[in-house]
Amino acid sequence: MTSAEFKGYIPVIDMSKSNEKELSNDLFSAFTKIGFATLINHGINDALLSRAFASSQSFFSLPLDVKIRYKYQSHTSNRGYIPMGTETHDQFNETGESDKKETLDIGPEEDMKCDWTIVTADTHYGNQWPLLSDEEREEICCNDFDAQQFRSTMIEYFSTMDELHMKLLRLLAQAIKLDDAEYFVKRCNTQHQNLRLLHYPTLHFKPSSERKDREPEVVVRGNIHTDFGTLTLLTQDVVGGLRIQTLEEQWINVPPVPNGIAVNVGDMLQRWTNGVLRATPHQVISMIHRTDEEQSQSISTIVIPERYSIAFFCNANRDIMLECLPCCVSAERPVQFDPINAHAFITMRLQQTIATNGADV
Length: 361
Prior knowledge:
Structural class: alpha+beta
Helix content: 25-40%
Strand content: 15-25%
Low-confidence stretches: 113-123
Strand order of the largest sheet: 1-2-11-8-14-5-4-3
Largest sheet: 8 strands, mixed
Shape: globular
CATH class: Mainly Beta
Number of domains: 1
Radius of gyration: 21 Å
CATH topology: Jelly Rolls
């Protein structure tokens, strides 16, 4: 069975199913054939999702000279603000153009449910929480930004998503028929995760004057890449634009589903399962469709609306060696990946992607 059997759509999985075996089989089918699924009835409060998006929008609405105070400093810490033009995915990027987005990366906090006796290498790195005095807020006309509410919302979002991450790992361990249902959980339970807020600003696109056909023009906002970790849990606004590339090199949209969560396999889980579970290339684009009247006129620019999304990148614990599981190796499927430490792998991928202007890496 190939990804073509999904017939151009992303499978939607109802997490409220009482039959756990059926649920694990649904995830396994999606992750082995196409690497993506959309979760509904996942148990995460709609109000929390709304608050997280509102908080994200309030942060990105701050002036650049304020946001830059909290700039990303190190691939080791993997926290802080990344302005436009700083991130360039290397895997499939032939042009070398950077992504048209800005982000804020958030790591675990001590008041999250985390075993900090294991997470020793990162304790001297703190999150770059934005703090503004009342005077500053008034001066820059950002009275709607509440630093305390921003922090509390993101901490709650982080912990809630991590609980869903653990649930999904248990289901996948069951689907792969591992003897220990907690196998993945035990190796991903120190919250070595990364919460990323993403903002794709409004673009003013100049359509090609040479295009005379009806084919839409594609504006790339986020370059083609696979995610680095085990799983990614993504919420996106109604603007959409996320699409994935199948084994047959066809592009399939991942449409926004109200209060749905898109989940996909990352490189770590692909390595762990020797390619049984697929880390699928994906990108963020805007498709420009012009009417006959617009094509006949000389239009200088087209406004592409801004887009927001929130990604929760899940990773294996820092001290874990990513080695192909014996149950995923056979004569027909020989070992595809060399063993590598999880933290070394994620740091390597970040170094290849994010420019830090000489900061400690």
